[in-house]
Q: What sequence folds into this?
């Protein structure tokens, strides 16, 4: 009956159907990635980042081609500026390539650093990824002119500095809203990841209410989940997932012990 009700609601709302399909596909992809070697996750993230950048660059290139020329073929600063910009950025395919390289490189470096540091993401990793993406963008787009290497380095430095500044600003805003949320989030890093993968995001508050953090993942029982008011269906999914990845969670906790609050 419940399945029929859901199907009926989705049939009357195509947008809800598409969103549910996207969530299911995303959860299936995350589950599959977890079972693969680390380099597979890096490759998938790189491909996804490059694809997004390629689409964005293609759209921007198409829009730039649609821009009207200077009135009456006017020459001068306006015409020269547009000509220079067109030469630097190129058409849709060129811009798609440039942005694909930039975003793909950022995803490649960022994901690799995150995997090497056991899931830790901070300003250093973001700045390193931004430096690499800026340098590669400079080289592939040809904006470096006759001195490509020095210009690639300087472009990378600018990208890294901007990314570092934005990251720190965002961190300060987040800290002001959440207080010691960073330590709490570290304690529930794998727990949240598990619930995201299973499509059970709404039960995150139940886990926090019962203090079922990453340290308890290998120890989860049906009674413990029942105590925090997780329904029978989600309990079965969570317990199956926890049993499947029990050894992985134990090994991960040993590596991440320094990130967890002392009282966990």
A:
């Amino acid at each position: 009956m419940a399945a029929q009700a859901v199907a009926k609601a989705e049939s009357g709302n195509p947008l809800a159907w598409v969103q549910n399909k996207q969530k299911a596909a995303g959860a299936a992809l995350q589950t599959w990635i977890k079972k693969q070697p680390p380099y597979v996750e890096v490759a998938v993230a790189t491909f996804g980042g490059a694809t997004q950048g390629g689409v964005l660059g293609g759209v921007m290139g198409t829009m730039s081609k649609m821009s009207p020329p200077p009135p009456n073929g006017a020459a001068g600063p306006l015409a020269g500026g547009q000509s220079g910009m067109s030469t630097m950025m190129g058409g849709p395919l060129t811009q798609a390539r440039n942005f694909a390289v930039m975003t793909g490189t950022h995803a490649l470096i960022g994901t690799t650093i995150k995997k090497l540091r056991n899931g830790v993401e901070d300003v250093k990793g973001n700045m390193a990824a931004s430096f690499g993406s800026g340098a590669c963008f400079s080289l592939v787009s040809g904006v470096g002119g006759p001195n490509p290497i020095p210009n690639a380095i300087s472009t990378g430095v600018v990208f890294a500095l901007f990314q570092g500044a934005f990251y720190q600003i965002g961190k300060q805003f987040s800290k002001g809203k959440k207080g010691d949320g960073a330590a709490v989030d570290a304690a529930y890093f794998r727990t949240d990841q598990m619930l995201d993968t299973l499509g059970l995001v709404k039960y995150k508050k139940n886990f926090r209410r019962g203090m079922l953090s990453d340290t308890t993942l290998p120890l989860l029982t049906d009674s413990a989940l029942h105590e925090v008011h997780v329904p029978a269906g989600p309990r079965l999914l969570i317990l199956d997932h926890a049993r499947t990845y029990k050894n992985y969670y134990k090994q991960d906790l040993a590596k991440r012990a320094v990130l967890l609050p002392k009282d966990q």
User: Anything to note?
Assistant: DSSP finds 13 helices and no strands in the chain. The two ends are 42 Å apart (CA to CA).
